[in-house]
Amino acid sequence: MGPVPVDRPVRVALVEDTDVVVEGVRTWIADDPAGRAVIVAVAGSIEAVLDGPGRDADVLVLDLELDGVMVTERVAALSDAGFRVVVFSVHVEPLIVEAVMNAGACAFLDKRTERDHFVDTIVAVAHDEPAVTPSMAGGLLQAVRLSPREREALRYLFQGMDHVSIARRLRKPSGETISAYTAKQYIERARAKFAAAGRPCRSTFALLARCIEEGLIRPEEVEDYRSGQNGP
Amino acid sequence: MARGTLAAETVQAARRARYETIRGTVVHLLAGLSTGRLDLTKPANHQQIAVAVTRLRRYLVETDEVPDPLSHELQACADAAEREGIAVDLLAPAGVIPALPVDIRRALTEPIIEVLAATATRARITVVAFATEVVVAIIADAQLAAPIAATHDDVQVAQDTEGGLWVQSRWTGLSGSPS
């Protein structure tokens, strides 16, 4: 499972049992000006989605509560089977976010408030890039040993700031401003640390490989986090 | 009997303290309303009343026996704003909020109440907690007439008006920041 080539749309499978939400997702994907994603399968259960074209999707978008039952514990097996799971849920408690991320989910989207992040997140995940939504930031904050700047950047993201506003708040002690790109790097580095320290699975390896390639984290640091040494 | 007297005195002292707090908040507003001195068509007066109503709701829940009083009080503030037609997104706290005395909790929620009273349509409220640091923040489409001041020495207030209003209140415990 290599990353999806950038020149073709990302194939999305959606596990969701509420019609109005499915309609919403279809609209967001159709409204993306660059047409970066297409839906290849939709069903109300994991089995039904995987029993068809959904099994070859690049990204599996998973509602955590299907017919009133929480499917949180399915995330690990799906991630081990090589699916890039993006959890799409109203259950945004940081502990649940942390648990599904640790199980191997590539990203978490808050169903109520993160529609604007939907397509960007799916596309980033398909390319094995570190995607961090505001709801994910709350879960990451407690889970990893972060530098003060990484923690501050994550906190502002959780509070609801965009990268430009975060950069403005993260002014250096000298008063010098930092760029939105640098702010984004602090956040992505926190994501890489979380992946390094968490449960090993295919999605995590792909993400870490990408992060090493991008210079966000060094291979020896990954080893430190994996063995629990948690270097600075 | 001494114990009974003591208990009665404690209850009375608590009542007096509560009355004093509420008097400062609402009595002058009620007087203004009853005499027609307070012009409700002025947004500033309307906001003053919204602040008072929300404070009252917070006072009412301050003595509830709940595991997480700060979240409980923020929920009361959010409920009051939602009654005014504001869409409030109050997120579950990131981290476990340490036990905080009521004056610290009030100092943390006071800026949130002021922003909510000035909010037009929507607000997002978050809490990030560590053992010696609690940060409450609000992002809203609100315009403040004046910057919000801190009301307690151990609580700092920060704000930024560029690109929507952001206000943050931050308590740090004795051992400083947890980094």
Please characterize this protein's 3D structure.
The complex is a heterodimer of chains A (232) and B (179). Chain A has 2 domains: 1-127, Rossmann fold; 145-232, no CATH class. Chain A has helices at 19-30, 46-50, 75-80, 94-103, 118-126, 134-143, 148-159, 163-169, 180-197, 202-213, 219-226; strands spanning 10-15, 37-43, 59-62, 65-66, 69-70, 85-89, 107-110. With 232 residues, chain A is of the alpha/beta class. Chain A is globular, with a radius of gyration of 17 Å. Chain B has one domain (39-172): Histidine kinase-like ATPase, C-terminal domain (Heat Shock Protein 90), CATH 3.30.565.10. Chain B has a 5-stranded mixed sheet, with helices on one face. The chains are: A alpha/beta (232), B alpha+beta (179).
Give keywords:
heterodimer, A: about 230 residues, alpha/beta, Rossmann fold, 2 domains, 5-stranded parallel β-sheet, two-stranded antiparallel sheet, 11 helices, 7 strands, about 15% strand, globular, B: about 180 residues, alpha+beta, Heat Shock Protein 90, 5-stranded mixed β-sheet, 5 strands, about 20% strand
Q: What is the element layout, followed by pairings?
A:
The complex is a heterodimer of chains A (232) and B (179).
Chain A: E1 10-15, H1 19-30, E2 37-43, H2 46-50, E3 59-62, E4 65-66, E5 69-70, H3 75-80, E6 85-89, H4 94-103, E7 107-110, H5 118-126, H6 134-143, H7 148-159, H8 163-169, H9 180-197, H10 202-213, H11 219-226
Parallel strand pairs in A: 1-2, 1-3, 3-6, 6-7
Antiparallel strand pairs in A: 4-5
Helix pairs in contact in A: 4-6, 6-7, 6-9, 7-9, 8-9, 9-10, 9-11
Chain B: H1 2-35, H2 43-62, H3 69-83, E1 87-90, H4 102-118, E2 119-130, E3 133-142, E4 155-160, E5 165-172
Helix pairs in contact in B: 1-2, 2-3, 2-4, 3-4
